[in-house]
Structures are given as structure tokens and as C-alpha cells.
Amino acid sequence: MSMQTSISVAVASAKGGVGKSLAATNLSALTAARLHLRTALVDLDAGNGIDDLLLDLAPEKSWLDLMPVLQEITSEHLELARTVHTSGLHLFAAPADYVGAHGLESSQFTALLRVLRENYQFIVLDCPSGLVPITRNAVSRCDVILFLLTPDAPCLRSTQRMLAHLPESPPLGLVLSQYEVGGVFSPSDIEKTLRRTMLGVLPIDARAVWENVHYGQPCALSRKRGLAAEYRRVASVLTKDLHPHQPALARMPTGNGS
Asked: Which domains are seen in the chain, by residue range?
């Protein structure tokens, strides 16, 4: 089997507050620092993105600054728009401008993703919650969808409704966040209800999350157990397609059936 040169992952959710950006930043930092992959993290949530805060960065530019030069973009242009984290990952921060970013056309997003694939091995697209246009673009053009949810009835209902409108392809894996053993909904219950594969189960780890949110230190890099360990396991699964082994994600169901 030939080795893939890049993988793009859209990190999505039906509603906010499920740990989507926390997962996106930690997985990106892991692939850059521990797996030594050229990693780009793109915060697509214009006006509301927090990836820079979760990484303790102060970007001067955003991916929106690349739009005027997309047709003739070079690696030098990427360097001007990115912010480098100590892990080695390159953040393309969310723009503060709601209006300009929300007017992004499908052709522009396709061009941006093409350039990123040419320059990076692992690309994480941190999408706004729900099915806003830019999220639709990301989930329809990426290689795999990582869908975050929490084990509560409101989130499960919102997730079920959103999944019904997602494309049959690419493959989609669920990541259950804020899970506590003995809760009302187990990971297997959720898999059966949503008829999707559970790729990861993130346990409640209040201390790790508190430190990450307030100090901008990815817990996956500073801790060994609990939440950090599960982030590492998910990152390992996601990056298997970048190695000449049997790709785990290729075996994931792509539709609503099993």
C-alpha cells in the first residue's frame, strides 16, 4: 500500500461547549511535537475562534489574509499568515472579521485546502459548531470528519439531526467528550443510537482542562494519563494513513448504516 502524503481532518460538532477546539488544538500539538509531522491547524470560526488562546499565542495575521493571493500563493505567503507554536504546529488563526470570513466562497476554500495539502502532512480544520456554510465546505472536502459530542440528551439530539445532513463521504468518527463511567449514556449506547463508529472517549479531567484553558498549555503534551492519554490514542489512529500500514480510518462506515 502506498503512503499518503497528507490527511485533512475536519473537527466538527452540532453545538458549542463540547470540547471541540480543545480537541483540535491538542491533536494538532501532538502530531507536530510527538509524531514530527508537518502540521497545520486552521481555526475556521471567524470572530469566535479560540485556538490561539488555547495555545497561548498572539497571532498578527489570520487565514483570511491569504484570500487575495490564493491563485498565486507560495510557501512564503503561508509563512506570513501563520503563527508557530512551540510544539512545531502552524496555526492559521481565526479572523476577527465576521463579515469578510463568512463571505468565503466554496472555490476559495477549495484553493486554500489545496495549498495546505501541498505544504503540510496533517491538517486540522477547527469548524464552527453547526452546519454553517464554512463547516459544510470543510466536511465535504476533508479526508475524515472528527465529530465531538457530550453524553447528554440535548447534545445527542442535536448531533443526530446534524449527522442526517452530512455527506456519505468522507469517513466520520465520533469522539465522546466529558465522559464519566456510570453515566446515563454509555459509548456503546451512543454508537447504536447514532449508527456511527466511536473513535475516542475523552474522560472528564477538570484539572487538565482548567490548566489548558487558563495557561494555554496543551494537556496532551504536559500530562501522561486520563484525557491526555486518550488524545494521544486518537492522534495515533488519525495518522495511521500517513504510514504504509493498514489504514484504520478506511474501515470506518461512511453512511448511516454499519
From this structure: 7-242 (3.40.50.300)
pLDDT in tens, 121-170: 999 999 999 999 999 999 999 999 999 999 999 999 999 999 999 988 89
Q: Is 198 helix (H, G, I), strand (E, B) or coil?
A: strand
Residue 148 carries which side chain, given as an amino acid letter?
L
Could you tell me the pTM of the whole model? 0.91
- Other Cβ atoms less than 10 A from the Cβ of 110: the count is 14
Helix, strand counts (H, E) of the chain: 11, 8
∠ Cα 168 154 125 (to 5°): 45
204 phi-psi bin (left φ>0, alpha ψ -120 to 50, beta other): beta
Pairwise CA distance, residues 148 & 174, whole Å: 6
Comparing CA positions, the residue from 145, 121, 143 lying closest to residue 135 is 145
What would the grid cell of residue 202 be? 475523552
Q: Tell how far CA 27 is from the center of its chain.
A: 8
For residue 52, is it left (φ>0), alpha (ψ between -120 and 50) or beta?
alpha
Nearest to 46, CA basis, from 89, 90, 85, 103: 103
Predicted confidence (pLDDT) per residue in 229-257, tens digit: 999 999 999 998 775 443 344 334 333 33
Whether the CB-CB separation of 54 and 21 falls below 8 Å is answered with: yes
Closest among 171, 160, 168, 161 to 193, alpha carbons compared? 160
